[in-house]
Design goal:
By secondary structure, the chain is an alpha+beta fold. The chain is 34% helix and 10% strand. The radius of gyration is 22 Å and the shape is globular.
């Protein structure tokens, strides 16, 4: 969703997305609204904190920061409309573990803060005052941030063993097709440039577009199915150290895969970490695609693009900046994670449709399997 959208439509989008955000936790067990009652997991946030953080981010980037950065003005960052928000909900200053033990306001008060911020943003969008129209520059970021947290909220429900609400799209079956798609390769621009149309605000790590040359390659027409991966986990190949990298073997020896629940053959394998994807490839004389190959296929093959959206897909590419990278207004979005994270491409069933694009770079550490991630492969 671009900031070029008409203000009235942006207001409708903001309110619709907030309704969806709240619907995700509409049936949350009452005890889980108390952060100290939420099991501590390093890859989730207490629900109350995460919802409040969405509102804090919206207020900071859509209201407070634009006012402070007015052209020709030298003004300090205005205070939050809430007495507790800045000290409690700023992800840059609140340590992850502290989010379980901080002193929270009541759920009603936190929800009132969310409502107040949303009302102020919507009012500002419809305002004709020149100084408040600076909001337009960041509204795409605010929406994208809420889209991403909607998926994170869904991941939290899964991590806590809770059912997904009906508002979450159901997982779709893989198209009954096998084999590889062949590409002759060639030069193209990786990433987002002004000449490319996109339905959302581009992220700083997608820019500037980088000219790359892709050698001829083939890539599987579908992500790996759950049934195939389940068979691999149950085989001797999974325990064969020769199929694992040094780093992967270290992970395997500390982590047994106990979640060998039945993986449907007609759905994409899910909750697979990078080490496991890499080991499967080595055991089957395959490899993971590079992110350049993945984007090349997504931009050129309708059949490939139609198969995207079941799970996030691991690539063999380390998360690196494009040459000429410049931090965006959300300074902490990309730069702190370069060189330490791995690139995933595509989208999952829980990803907002606006976020699904050939250029979108998701990124996580190799050990993460709590996300809705799988993979597809290329022949060696």
């Amino acid at each position: 969703m671009s900031s070029k959208t008409e203000p009235n439509n942006l207001v409708m989008w903001l309110r619709a997305q907030r309704n969806y955000t709240l619907a995700l936790y509409a049936d949350l067990p009452p005890s889980l609204w108390t952060p100290t009652e939420v099991p501590y997991l390093s890859h989730i946030n207490p629900p109350l904190w995460e919802l409040g953080h969405i509102a804090w981010f919206q207020e900071y980037f859509a209201l407070r920061l634009p006012v402070a950065l007015l052209v020709g003005e030298h003004r300090e960052l205005p205070p939050s409309c809430s007495a507790f928000a800045e000290a409690l909900l700023n992800s840059n200053t609140i340590a992850h573990r502290d989010r379980w033990t901080s002193a929270y306001p009541s759920r009603e008060r936190l929800f009132a803060y969310m409502d107040e911020v949303l009302d102020l943003v919507c009012k500002a969008l419809l305002c004709e005052a020149a100084e408040i129209n600076a909001i337009d520059a960041n509204i795409g970021l605010v929406l994208a941030h809420e889209f991403m947290h909607q998926e994170a909220l869904t991941m939290t429900l899964t991590a806590l063993g809770l059912p997904l609400p009906d508002c979450v799209p159901k997982r779709e079956k893989l198209v009954e097709s096998s084999g590889d798609l062949r590409f002759e390769g060639g030069a193209f621009f990786l990433g987002v440039g002004d000449e490319k149309s996109h339905s959302r605000m581009p992220f700083d790590n997608e820019m500037p577009p980088m000219k790359v040359t892709v050698a001829p390659f083939s890539i599987s027409v579908n992500p790996l199915s759950g049934g195939v991966f389940e068979a691999f986990c149950a085989s001797a190949a999974y325990e064969n150290s020769e199929n694992w990298s040094v780093e992967g073997n270290a992970w395997r020896l500390k982590n047994s895969r106990n979640n060998l629940n039945k993986m449907p053959e007609n759905l994409a394998a899910i909750h697979i970490n990078y080490f496991e994807a890499e080991a499967y490839c080595r055991a089957n004389n395959r490899r993971l695609p590079t992110e350049a190959e993945w984007e090349f296929a997504a931009m050129r093959s309708p059949a490939f693009w139609a198969s995207v959206g079941h799970v996030w897909e691991w690539t063999s590419s380390v998360f690196l900046p494009h040459p000429g990278f410049e931090r965006g207004v959300y300074q902490e979005y990309s730069a702190p994670w370069f060189h330490t994270h791995q690139v995933l491409r595509g989208a999952s069933f829980a990803t907002h449709a606006v976020m699904k694009s050939p250029q979108y770079r998701n990124f996580y550490t190799k050990d993460r399997s709590d996300i809705f991630c799988g993979f597809r492969t290329c022949p060696v």
